[in-house]
């Protein structure tokens, strides 16, 4: 009986306790509502807003007292700040999914639509689990004229900068890795979007235009093994900067392209430029009148460029090593004492002048390799000799694919291969024949007919050196053994 009475008493106490808590909560809620009403009625809106902003700023400062900010100005000591340019390109392209407000536009001669930060919001990036906040800051200032005749004129200008904020504990990672990541990403983007330029010498200065040649290694009519060897050599050159520095050699590489006219030397140069994204400098040696001018002209070329010297065998100056010529040399070689010498050219390639610039490709072309001074041919000057031969079967397959869209085997290929083994014809001549018919079957039939005419001796009136077509005949003594 006592146990039952104790249990009943305990239950009654619990109910009383819960009821008390409900009464307290109700009273507090009523008090809060009355206080809010009193504040709204007695304190003006402006004062309430001021108090709220101060409280918000106080707690925000308490939370952000460990934040570090880097300010990246648009210019640095009067020069363009590359890091600002990098951020300007990096942010829209890399983390554009977090933007809610962007500037979009298209300007002449620009292939892609341009996207930029408009400065109305903060943008968050993530790097190695680090949160980084970017903000474009605009500052307007007035520039007053310093001219006497316009004393009251002024111009309103804007300064731009990026503010990069992050937690202080990540300072070392941001400074050593993240900024380098932004710069390297920007450089890769620039290389991919780069409009390749071709520069030609004229009037003692370089004249520039866009290189629009569409040649690529996919469309070049070269033997596939030879093509892969060239691509591999170019790619090795790009990533061997530290090796060149280690062994004490200038970061340059020389190529000699030789072969009959029409075998694709110019197309190969364009393909190399498009593959590397390098500008091209077409150096006409006849426009250079001294070693000092040669140095000046070459010093104006940029890094990551291809310097092309065509028909090197046709230039008399590169066959003479100094200015000390005999009267016989002056009368027969017709060398002007003011012109540059072979020694001047060699000094730029691997002598003391070669330190001016890096990541350069130097390409020489010739139709007659045997006429070039041996001093130019050795490794270190012309490191890789590329022979561009007359057209043969494997290279013809590429032409058939490019011009006619024929992939794989075709019944006429074997007949064409046999004819190409007997006839020396350039890719340019065969390409012209393929373009005369849009239907692939008709084009191949006409090509077979054309090659048979060449095999029968119907060669044009061109001289053997300049003719793009030459028939190879077996000598009579060899026929006895065949």
TrEMBL record:
Give the GO molecular function terms.
Answer: ATP binding; hydrolase activity
The AAA+ ATPase domain, residue ranges: 251-392
User: What keywords sit in the KW lines?
Assistant: ATP-binding, Hydrolase, Magnesium, Nucleotide-binding
Pfam family of this protein, just one? AAA_assoc
Keyword Magnesium in annotation: yes
The species this protein belongs to is Flemingia macrophylla
Catalysed reactions listed for this entry: ATP + H2O = ADP + phosphate + H(+)
**What is the protein's given name?**
AAA+ ATPase domain-containing protein
């Amino acid at each position: 009986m006592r146990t039952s009475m104790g249990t009943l008493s305990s239950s009654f106490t619990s109910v009383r306790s819960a009821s008390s808590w409900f009464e307290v909560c109700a009273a507090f809620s009523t008090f809060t509502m009355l206080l809010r009403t009193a504040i709204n009625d007695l304190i003006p809106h402006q004062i309430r807003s001021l108090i709220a902003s101060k409280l918000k700023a106080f707690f925000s400062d308490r939370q952000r007292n460990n934040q570090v900010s880097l300010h990246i100005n648009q210019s640095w000591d009067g020069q363009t700040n590359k890091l600002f340019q990098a951020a300007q390109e990096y942010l829209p392209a890399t983390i554009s999914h977090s933007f809610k407000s962007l500037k979009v536009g298209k300007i002449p001669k620009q292939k892609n639509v341009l996207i930029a930060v408009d400065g109305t919001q903060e943008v968050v990036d993530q790097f190695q689990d680090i949160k980084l906040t970017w903000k474009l800051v605009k500052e307007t200032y007035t520039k007053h004229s310093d001219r006497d005749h316009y004393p009251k004129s002024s111009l309103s200008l804007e300064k731009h900068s990026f503010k990069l904020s992050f937690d202080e504990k990540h300072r070392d990672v941001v400074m050593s890795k993240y900024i380098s990541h932004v710069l390297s990403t920007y450089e890769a983007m620039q290389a991919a979007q780069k409009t390749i330029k071709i520069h030609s010498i004229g009037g003692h200065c370089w004249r520039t235009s866009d290189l629009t040649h569409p040649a690529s290694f996919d469309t070049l009519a070269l033997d596939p093994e030879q093509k892969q060897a060239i691509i591999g050599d170019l790619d090795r050159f790009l990533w061997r900067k530290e090796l060149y520095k280690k062994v004490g050699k200038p970061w340059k590489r020389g190529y000699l392209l030789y072969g009959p006219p029409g075998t694709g030397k110019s197309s190969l140069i364009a393909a190399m430029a498009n593959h590397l994204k390098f500008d091209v400098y077409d150096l006409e040696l006849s426009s250079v009148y001294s070693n000092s001018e040669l140095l000046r002209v070459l010093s104006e070329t940029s890094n990551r460029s291809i310097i092309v010297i065509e028909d090197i065998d046709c230039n008399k100056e590169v066959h003479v090593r100094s200015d000390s010529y005999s009267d016989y040399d002056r009368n027969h070689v017709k060398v002007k004492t003011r012109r540059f010498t072979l020694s001047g050219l060699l000094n730029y390639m691997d002598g003391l002048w070669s330190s001016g610039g890096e990541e350069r490709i130097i390409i020489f072309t010739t139709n007659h390799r045997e006429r070039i001074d041996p001093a130019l041919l050795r490794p270190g000057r012309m490191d890789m000799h590329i022979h561009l031969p007359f057209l043969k079967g494997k290279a013809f397959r590429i032409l058939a694919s490019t011009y006619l869209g024929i992939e794989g085997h075709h019944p006429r290929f074997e007949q064409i291969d046999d004819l190409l083994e007997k006839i020396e014809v350039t890719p340019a001549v065969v390409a012209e024949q393929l373009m005369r018919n849009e239907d692939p079957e008709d084009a191949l039939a006409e090509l077979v007919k054309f090659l048979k005419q060449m095999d029968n001796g119907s060669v044009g009136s061109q001289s053997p050196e300049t003719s793009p077509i030459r028939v190879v005949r077996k000598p009579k003594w060899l026929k006895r053994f065949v």
